[in-house]
């Protein structure tokens, strides 16, 4: 039987939502920065620390066995969630940023002077700077796939940039600033024609669209737990097994070791080769609990609701004549970025907060994208399935006050 | 309207934020520094010039919020025409007031104490402080350059 979408019940699952900020009910529209946590996640972490904690792997005592089982079960659940071929293809990291850094660091052995790395104008700093550093180390060249004024990636320009020298393409699945959904399946297909590796920054996509890494045929997919209703400090690097096997370790010591002598050291198999030191066990358990929670919901209806809230907000925003939307892609996720004439986003953010509305203002770690639009920052409202139309009304009311005060 | 918001966006602040004084880049200047707020991407350029009496003529350019722009505008009107030593003294007093105590308790003009409104908004203290720290940087770093 199809599960029904019950907004009221869903909101009860998120204890943090039930509070007042500056005398108004909290309206949380900063989900692209971090989502809130359902009680199931908070309880899973608490239960783990109260009942099952010990260090993982190699322990013979009961708690260590339990912790190891929970940790590895989490990996299996994540593998299933994104339809990886095997749980050995799931490497735990601190988040998307560390996943991309791991790749930019370990892929450098395959890159030589004059090779080309492709990223796009809309990338987050975390998907720019690691590649810039790789280029500095190897003499490779960073090339930028342009976007149009709607904030859509220019596939035809990308095809022209692709060539024999292209070794890596790293792009966002969904832009954190614009909400643009990029045609990554097509990008992956084109890149593979040139034998380039494809890295997908899935930080924004993971919470808003089903991910099937096998269907996408991507080489690497990265995301953070905290944008998927899980805890902070845990993230995932998915990689095709044969490719992960090709790469050298990223950090050294602890779980990634197989055998050490003073003359020689050999490294553990996948995925442990990339997990040096004691991992974030509680984080992985929390993330698995988030996935269990999401699987208990009618996820397609949740995504549908998010877009309804997005469309409603977009419609309401039209009542202001001073607003310019930043990011009007035909394919969008529930993120709205906008500016309001000469009014600085930061001032708007402060006034909205006084009305209980949490939005993010500024450059959203996409400074080159701000430069493209010739602006210093935007006001960004990003939605989740727990948001309501009433909250949108609160946002619109707050904006009215802000614009009146500041213009 | 909200009292806290009213104290942050007082009419003087709004007025200076929207119509800043001493805005622009002079043809010639003795000291310069660029200030950047990584939190929001705001930028402030400070230009210091000294006349024959060694009195400061200070202007600025910025891409910034109301609070930062107003703070820079108020700062330039306060620092205009005083000596460099006095200017640094005043800057330190204001920065101490913003970060450690309150401007109200300092020997400052009434319009400068209006910046105290940011105290209720911790994330905005940096906005008010940026022009002052940038001016300090312009004055101190150019001294180092001269050495």
User: What overall geometry of chain B do the principal axes of the alpha carbons give?
Assistant: globular
Number of continuous helical runs of chain A: 14
Strand order within the widest beta sheet of chain B: 1-2-3
Overall pLDDT metric of chain A: 96
Question: Can you tell me the CATH topology of chain B?
Answer: Sufe protein. Chain: A
Output the structural class of chain A: alpha/beta
Number of strands of chain B: 3
Major sheet of chain B: size, sense and barrel closure? 3 strands, antiparallel
For the termini of chain B, the CA-CA separation is 53 Å
Helix content of chain B: 40-55%
The domain tally of chain B reads: 1
The computed structural class of chain B is alpha+beta
Based on CA atoms alone, the radius of gyration of chain A comes out at 22 Å
**The CATH topology of the largest domain in chain A, please?**
Aspartate Aminotransferase, domain 2
User: What radius of gyration of chain B results from the CA coordinates?
Assistant: 15 Å
Shape of chain A: globular
Briefly characterize the structure.
Chain A has 407 residues and is of the alpha/beta class.
Detailed description of the structure:
The complex is a heterodimer of chains A (407) and B (147). With 407 residues, chain A is α/β, with parallel strands linked by helices. Chain A has two domains: 7-30 and 298-406, Aspartate Aminotransferase, domain 1; 42-295, 3-Layer(aba) Sandwich (Aspartate Aminotransferase, domain 2). Chain A contains 14 helices and 17 strands. In chain A, the strands form five sheets. Chain A has a seven-stranded mixed beta sheet with strand order 4-10-9-8-7-5-6, with helices on both faces. In chain A, strands 13-14-17-16 form a four-stranded antiparallel beta sheet, covered by helices on one side. A two-stranded antiparallel ribbon of chain A has the order 1-2. In chain A, helix 8 (213-216) links the parallel strand 8 and strand 9 (220-224). The longest helix of chain A has 20 residues, at 62-81. The mean pLDDT of chain A is 96. Chain B has 147 residues and is of the alpha+beta class. Chain B has one domain (3-146): Sufe protein. Chain: A, CATH 3.90.1010.10. Chain B has six helices and three strands, in the order H-H-E-E-E-H-H-H-H. Chain B has a three-stranded antiparallel beta sheet, with helices on one face. In chain B, helix 2 packs across helix 3 and helix 3 (66-79) packs across helix 6 (125-146). Chain B starts with a helix and ends with a helix. The mean pLDDT of chain B is 92. Chains A and B meet through helix 12 and helix 14 of A and helix 1 of B.
């Amino acid at each position: 039987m199809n599960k029904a979408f019950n907004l009221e019940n869903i909101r009860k699952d998120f204890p943090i939502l039930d509070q007042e900020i500056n005398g108004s009910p909290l309206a949380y529209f900063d989900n692209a920065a971090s989502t809130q946590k359902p009680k199931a996640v908070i309880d899973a972490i608490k239960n783990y620390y109260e009942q099952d904690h010990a260090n993982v792997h190699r322990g013979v005592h009961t708690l260590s066995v339990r912790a190891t089982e929970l940790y590895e079960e989490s990996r299996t659940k994540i593998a299933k969630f994104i339809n990886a071929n095997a749980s050995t293809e799931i490497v735990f990291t601190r988040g998307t940023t560390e996943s991309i850094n791991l790749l930019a660091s370990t892929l450098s052995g395959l890159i030589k002077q004059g090779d080309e790395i492709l990223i796009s104008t809309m990338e987050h700093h975390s998907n720019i700077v690691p590649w810039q550093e790789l280029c500095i180390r190897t003499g490779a060249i960073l090339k930028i796939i342009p976007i149009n004024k709607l904030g859509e990636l220019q596939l035809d320009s990308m095809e022209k940039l692709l060539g024999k020298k292209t070794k890596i393409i790293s792009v966002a699945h969904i832009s954190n600033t614009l909400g643009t959904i990029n045609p990554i399946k097509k990008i992956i297909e084109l890149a593979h024609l040139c034998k380039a590796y494809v890295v997908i920054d899935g930080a924004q996509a993971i919470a808003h669209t089903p991910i099937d890494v096998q269907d996408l045929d991507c080489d690497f997919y990265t995301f953070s737990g905290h944008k998927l209703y899980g805890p902070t400090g845990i993230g995932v690097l998915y990689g095709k097994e044969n490719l992960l096997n090709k790469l050298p370790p990223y950090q050294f010591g602890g779980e990634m070791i197989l055998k050490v002598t003073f003359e020689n050291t050999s490294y553990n198999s996948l995925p442990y080769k990339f997990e040096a030191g004691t991992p974030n066990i509680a984080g992985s358990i929390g993330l698995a609990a988030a996935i269990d929670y999401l699987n208990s919901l009618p996820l397609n209806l949740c995504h549908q609701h998010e877009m309804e809230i997005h469309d409603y907000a977009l419609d309401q925003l039209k009542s202001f004549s001073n607003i310019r939307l930043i990011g009007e892609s035909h394919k969008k996720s529930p993120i709205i970025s906008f500016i309001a004439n000469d009014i600085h986003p930061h001032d708007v953010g402060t006034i909205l907060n006084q009305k209980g509305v949490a939005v993010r203002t500024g450059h959203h770690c996409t400074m080159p994208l701000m430069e493209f639009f010739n602006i210093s920052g935007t006001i960004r409202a990003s939605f989740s399935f727990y948001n309501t139309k009433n909250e949108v009304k609160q946002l619109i009311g707050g904006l009215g006050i802000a614009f009146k005060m500041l213009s | 309207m909200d009292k806290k918001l009213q104290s942050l966006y007082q009419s003087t602040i709004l007025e200076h934020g929207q119509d800043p004084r001493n805005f622009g880049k002079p043809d010639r200047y003795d000291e310069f520094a660029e200030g950047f707020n990584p939190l929001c991407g705001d930028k402030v350029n400070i230009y210091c010039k000294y006349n024959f009496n060694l009195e400061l003529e200070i202007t600025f350019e910025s891409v910034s919020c109301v609070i930062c722009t107003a703070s820079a505008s108020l700062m330039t009107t306060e620092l205009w025409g005083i000596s460099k030593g006095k200017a640094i003294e005043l800057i330190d007093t204001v920065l101490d007031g913003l970060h450690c105590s309150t401007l109200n308790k300092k020997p400052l003009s009434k319009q400068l104490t209006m910046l105290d409104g940011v105290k209720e908004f911790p994330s905005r203290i940096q906005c008010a402080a940026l022009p002052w720290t940038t001016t300090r940087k312009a004055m101190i770093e150019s001294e180092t350059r001269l050495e």
